[in-house]
Design a protein that fits this description.
mainly alpha
Length: about 140
Amino acid sequence: MDRKVIEQKLESLRRCLLRIADKCPPDSGTLAEDLDLQDIVALNLSRAVQLCVDIGAHLIAGIEAPLPDTMGQTFDTLAKAGIIHEKLAMQMKKAVGFRNIAVHNYGEINWTIVYAIAGHHLEDFTEFAKAIVSRLEEEN
């Protein structure tokens, strides 16, 4: 495991979360109507999910666990390894679902849901980052 790579990804995650928090409007209606805010929030949420998957994959390679077949399984594997807890794994798998819709246009994006993620679930990403930092500290 390359600690520096993980630390760089954690910093990128921090910046994405700050950008979302800074640009998320006070209500879902504003988000639904403002294309620029939609781009900023959706892009940074997608990046945040991808960064968490990348960090997880990097950790999994370092613990010699079986490689996950899907992005969502990355979080299941981390939970089985005791790096994150099951509830967080479930929340992160839901975030992967959002990312897939945003990136691949698997349907029209529901901006009310995006607003709810940005307004109420950024702490899932923060909790994930804290769990990773804790794991890095354990390995020192």
